User: Which sequence fits this backbone?
C-alpha cells in the first residue's frame, strides 16, 4: 500500500492518552497508526511535534445580524481564520428572520455555509414560537440538525412553560437543547435603569448582567431538564456560581453539558475600564478573577465539557460607532483564529495534561453533537489532523486572518500555532501557510444519541 500522507514518529494526543507512532492517511481517512514502512506521496517528520485531532468549534456565528449591523466574517472568511487555529469543523447557528420557520431558516443557513473551507454542522435557533414550531423541530431533526438553541434573554426569550415543552419534544426526537443562560427580565430592567442614570460606559455592561442572572437561568433550566428527563447544553458559561449548579446537577445524574470560551478563561471585567473596553463587550460579560480560576478548576476535574469560541467578530468602526455606549455596542468578539493556541498556551502554563485540549476541543464536541468520524486520531476516523511545534511562539498582532481588525488577544504571546492542518486528507495549512483555497467543507448530519 502507498499512503497519501505519512506523519512519522508523531506524539499523538487523544482525549484519554498520548502515544508515539506513525500515522498513515489514505484518501479521506486515517488508514493506519503504528510503524509504517510503506511509501507515501507526502511524508511529514513528526519528531518534536504534537499531533491533535482536528479541533471542533461547537459555537460560531458567521455573518449574523446584531443590533444595526452584522458580524463581519462569513463562512469563507471565518473558516479561513478557523483553519489557522486548527479548527476543521464548526457548528454554526441558524438565524430566524421574520416569517421564517425552523425549516426555512435551516435551509438558508445550510446554503450559506457551502462556501466554508471546513466541515460544518448546524444548530437551529428557536426565536419565534409560531404555531407548529414544535412539530417543525422534528422535520429539521430528520435533516440531521438535532441541536436547538433557545434563550432566556433578549426580546425573543423563551418562557418557562415553552422551555418545558421544548425539552419534552427534544426528548421525544432524540435532540439536544442548547441554552443561553441569563435571566433576561432582570437584565432588561437593569440596562434600562443604568441608561436612565447616565451609566452608559462599558463598565456598566457587566453591572447590567450580574452573575446571579446566570446562576438563576442555569438552575431553572436544570430543574426543568431534570423534570422532563431530557438533556441540556449550556453555552458560554462564565461564572463560579453558575458552574457550581452544573456540578451539582451532574452529581444527580442529570444530563447537562457545560461549555465555556477562551475569553472567559483569559480576561476579567477589569478590561471594561480600559479606553478600548467596548471592544470586549459580549454577552454574557467577562467576570471576576475568582470566576476565571474556578472555570479552570472545573476544566481540570472534568466538570467542563467543551470549549467553543462564540466567534462573532466586529470591526473597530462597528464597535466605535456609538462612542462606547455599552447598550448600543454590538456584542461579540473575534476569537476563532486563536481558539486552540489560546488554550494550548494556558494548558502549558497551568501544567495541565495535554490531553485536556483533545478532550474539550475535539472528542467531547464530537460525541455530544454526534459527529461521526470526528474527534479522535484513530484508524478509520476522518483524517482531520493538526500538527503543532510546541517551541514555536507568536505575538498576536494585526493583520488578522478574520475580517475583523480587532483581537482580544492582541499583544499576548501564543504557542500552539498549527504548522499543518489537514481536513479529510486535504491540506488547509502547510508550514503555517493557508493552501486550502480549493478545499470545501462538508455538511455533517448529527447522529446524536442521548436516550
Assistant:
Amino acid at each position: 500500500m502507498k499512503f497519501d500522507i505519512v506523519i512519522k514518529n508523531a506524539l499523538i494526543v487523544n482525549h484519554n492518552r498520548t502515544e508515539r507512532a506513525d500515522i498513515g492517511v489514505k484518501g479521506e481517512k486515517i488508514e493506519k497508526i503504528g510503524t509504517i514502512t510503506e511509501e507515501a506521496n507526502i511524508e511529514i517528520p513528526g519528531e518534536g511535534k504534537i499531533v491533535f485531532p482536528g479541533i471542533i468549534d461547537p459555537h460560531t456565528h458567521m455573518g449574523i445580524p446584531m443590533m444595526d449591523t452584522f458580524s463581519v466574517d462569513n463562512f469563507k472568511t471565518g473558516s479561513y481564520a478557523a483553519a489557522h487555529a486548527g479548527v476543521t469543523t464548526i457548528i454554526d447557528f441558524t438565524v430566524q428572520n421574520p416569517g421564517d420557520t425552523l425549516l426555512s431558516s435551516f435551509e438558508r443557513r445550510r446554503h450559506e455555509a457551502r462556501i466554508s473551507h471546513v466541515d460544518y454542522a448546524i444548530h437551529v435557533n428557536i426565536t419565534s414560537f409560531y404555531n407548529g414550531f414544535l412539530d417543525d423541530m422534528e422535520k429539521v431533526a430528520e435533516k440531521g440538525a438535532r441541536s436547538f438553541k433557545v434563550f432566556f434573554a433578549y426580546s425573543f426569550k423563551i418562557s418557562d412553560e415553552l422551555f418545558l415543552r421544548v425539552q419534552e419534544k427534544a426528548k421525544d426526537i432524540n435532540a439536544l437543547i442548547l441554552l443561553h443562560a441569563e435571566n433576561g427580565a432582570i437584565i432588561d430592567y437593569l440596562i434600562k435603569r443604568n441608561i436612565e442614570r447616565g451609566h452608559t460606559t462599558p463598565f456598566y455592561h457587566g453591572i447590567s448582567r450580574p452573575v446571579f442572572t446566570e446562576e438563576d437561568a442555569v438552575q431553572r433550566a436544570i430543574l426543568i431538564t431534570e423534570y422532563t428527563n431530557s438533556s441540556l447544553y449550556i453555552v458560554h458559561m462564565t461564572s463560579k456560581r453558575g458552574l457550581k449548579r452544573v456540578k451539582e446537577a451532574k452529581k444527580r445524574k442529570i444530563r447537562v453539558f457545560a461549555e465555556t470560551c477562551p475569553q472567559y478563561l483569559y480576561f476579567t471585567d477589569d478590561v471594561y475600564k480600559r479606553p478600548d473596553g467596548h471592544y470586549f463587550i459580549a454577552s454574557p460579560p467577562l467576570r471576576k478573577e475568582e470566576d476565571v480560576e474556578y472555570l479552570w478548576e472545573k476544566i481540570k476535574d472534568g466538570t467542563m465539557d467543551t470549549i467553543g469560541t462564540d466567534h462573532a467578530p466586529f470591526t473597530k468602526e462597528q464597535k466605535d460607532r456609538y462612542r462606547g455606549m455599552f447598550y448600543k455596542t454590538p456584542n461579540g468578539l473575534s476569537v476563532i483564529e486563536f481558539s486552540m493556541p489560546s488554550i494550548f498556551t494556558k494548558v502549558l502554563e497551568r501544567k495541565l495534561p495535554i490531553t485536556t485540549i483533545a478532550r474539550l476541543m475535539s472528542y467531547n464536541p464530537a460525541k455530544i453533537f454526534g459527529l461521526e468520524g470526528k474527534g479522535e486520531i484513530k484508524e478509520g476516523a476522518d483524517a482531520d489532523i493538526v500538527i503543532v511545534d510546541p517551541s514555536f511562539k507568536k505575538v498576536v498582532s494585526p493583520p488578522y486572518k478574520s475580517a475583523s481588525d480587532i483581537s482580544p488577544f492582541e499583544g499576548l504571546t501564543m504557542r500552539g500555532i498549527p504548522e499543518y492542518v489537514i481536513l479529510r486528507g486535504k491540506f488547509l495549512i502547510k508550514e503555517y501557510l493557508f493552501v486550502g483555497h480549493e478545499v470545501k467543507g462538508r455538511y455533517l448530519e448529527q447522529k446524536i444519541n442521548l436516550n
The mean pLDDT is 97. The CA atoms of residues 291 and 310 lie 18 Å apart. The chain has one domain: 53-368. The first helix runs from residue 75 to 83.
